[in-house]
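Hi D.,

Good news: the full-assembly prediction came through. Inputs first.
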Amino acid sequence: MTAGPVERAPERYPVTHDVSRHEAGEGEPRTAPNDAWPEVLRAEVVAGLRSRPKTLPPKLFYDERGARLFDQICGLDEYYLTRTELAIMRAHAGEMAALAGAGCVLVEYGSGEALKVRLLLDALREPAAYVPIDISAEQLARVAGAIAAEYPGLAVRPLAADYTGPLTLPELPADVRSSRRVAYFPGSTIGNFHPPEALAFLRGVARVCGDEGVLLLGADLRKDPAVLHAAYNDAAGVTAAFNRNVLARLNRELGATFDADLFRHYAYYNPVAGRVEMHLVSLEEHTVRVAGERVSLDRGESIWTESSYKYSPCELETLASRAGFEVVRAWTDADALFCVLYLEVSAGRRG
Ligand SMILES: C[S@@+](CC[C@H](N)C(=O)[O-])C[C@H]1O[C@@H](n2cnc3c(N)ncnc32)[C@H](O)[C@@H]1O
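Then the structure:
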């Protein structure tokens, strides 16, 4: 079965990317602002750059080049997350599939290269459909096409959307009969939300899953800060390039005038807040224009681009239960670096 057309949630993020321009990467000539940027996202960027501390939403990382850089990060020695989660999935996908039962609709949030989900698809009994959701529309279309080719008989219905907004899942073909919805949210992407946002997001997932729904959640655990420091400050500088790419994207798509060389990638673990913070620190006092607005930066001032919260197993259980899920099983690796939880929507969940 071929993948259905990529459905796009309108008005929430730019969907008309000119890939030929993306290929040029940092330092390319600036272009006119991309009119495909919806006002709501433009306003989010401007408000973030006006706030103190200055912030940018991490969803901006994933243009075509950002998605490729993230893929490289996943293969780095220092970045233990991907290989550890993959090992957990290899060891336990069979148990996860047995718990989920036959005929489910698998909904993946932030599917990226959809590596881990293949292990689930291989293990699940007669999955009815696969609905990958991602903000990176080009990558999503490519990956959905590949999955459809690899799993003939599986209805693949990609949805290009910002999953922090309201979601309407694509219609499934009339002949698809399904049991329950199983959401999959790997990669510890849950850690990119501040805790109140994580709670709101998970409550939304519970609503999308509905009664009998399941969430398989991959989350990074608290650990030695040195391990975390290395993971977000790799020796090859790929994470730094990923971080700075957001400035190149704003230049290209929003007519901004950032000089990426004036910013240092700076990531560190804050053990009190339990998060890795990723920043772009201005090396000089200077002014840039973004979406027609002037933004002044002091020497040493940061633009906070991402947080990656690390949880203890107990904190994860509390978060899940406040969001309306019960923990049925949790699997970790021998060094307790990473955890995958099997959560079921609780009978008495509050909307
Ligand atoms: C950290 S990567 C994880 C990718 C993959 N799931 C994995 O485990 O390796 C986050 C993924 O979520 C997507 N993403 C980030 N923010 C998003 C948002 N607000 N809405 C939809 N997708 C988003 C990115 O494009 C990217 O593919």
